[in-house]
Amino acid sequence: MQRENRSERRSEHIDDRRTVKVSKYLSKHLRHQPERIGLTLDAAGWTEIDTLIAAAAAHGFRFTREELDHVVATNDKRRFAVEGTRIRASQGHSVDVDLGLPAATPPPYLYHGTVARHLGAIRAEGLRPMNRHDVHLSPDRETATRVGSRRGRPVVLSVDTAAMHRDGHVFHVSANGVWLTRTVPPQYLRFPSGTDPASRAVTARDVSRETGPAA
Predict the structure, then answer these.
(1) Is 179 strand, coil or helix?
(2) What CATH number should be reported for the domain holding residue 6?
(3) Based on the domain organization, do 202 and 113 belong to the same domain?
(4) Which domain holds residue 26?
(5) Residue 181 is inside which H or E element, if any?
(6) Domain check: are 202 and 115 in the same one?
(7) What is the per-residue pLDDT for 33?
(8) Contact 123, 83 (CB under 8 A)
(9) Per the domain annotation, does 147 fall within a domain?
(10) Is 50 exposed, middle or buried (0-12, 13-18, 19+ CB in 10 A)?
(11) Does 202 reside within a domain?
């Protein structure tokens, strides 16, 4: 108990800006660019924590095991998973990994947070993974609203996942509760009343921003 209390007191000295900086660094190199710091992920996305810390230091970004543990423990989206001496991102990879998640039966509806400027492309093409492996769906409107609000005034879409599942679409759920599927065709999407079907069309590059590293 005393050891835990000492750890808690030390973590209080890690300020929020430093926590965000370390978290973004981990996301970048555990999801997207491990090779930039000479890091190798295994087939399931895991790497040794000591190896990660040493690789980061060798490339000019130093952080401690205490800081890493603080980021993992306090991240509200549980973006990272630690298993023994290893760490990986819970989901959101653009590099080739297999998280080994079993197929799961989704609830009748899941949700996706976006912004109005993307609705034209979404109505035409549905939701696509873009630079990620999968489309990310939220279990409730509140979470989807937070996701959408990172890019502006949020618009929350409902996804008829019961119908998708009946039609053979496969779903997985990550360790931090994000639902994953390869694509969501437009016929399974429910748009809020009052959204304009003639929303300005955007490019695929524009839409990819809503599935970027921040989620």
Answers:
(1) strand
(2) 1.10.10.970
(3) yes
(4) 2-89
(5) strand 179-181
(6) yes
(7) 94
(8) no
(9) yes
(10) exposed
(11) yes
Tell which residue, 110, 109, 79, has the closest CA to residue 174: 79
Eight-state DSSP code of residue 29 = I
Whether 203 and 120 map to the same domain: the answer is yes
| pLDDT score at 21 | 95
Rounded-to-integer distance, Cα 158 and Cα 115, Å = 14
Among candidate residues 176, 173, 165, 14, the one with its CA nearest the CA of residue 89: 176
Residue 102 placed within a domain: no
- Grouping H, G, I as helix, E, B as strand and the rest as coil, residue 111 is strand
117 lies in the same domain as 207: yes
Q: What tens digit of pLDDT does each residue of 94-142 get?
A: 888 888 899 999 999 999 999 999 999 999 999 998 878 899 999 999 9
β-pairing, 179-181 vs 172-173, is antiparallel
| Segments in 150-203 forming alpha helices (H) | 161-166
What residue type is assigned to position 23 of the chain? S
Q: Are 155 and 145 in contact (CB under 8 A)?
A: no
Q: Is residue 166 within 8 Å of residue 211, measured between CB atoms?
A: no
Q: What are phi and psi of 107, to 5 degrees?
A: -65, 170
Residue 100 lies in a domain: no
3-state secondary structure of 19: helix
In total, the chain counts a number of residues equal to 215
Of 60, 89, 118, which closes a domain? 89
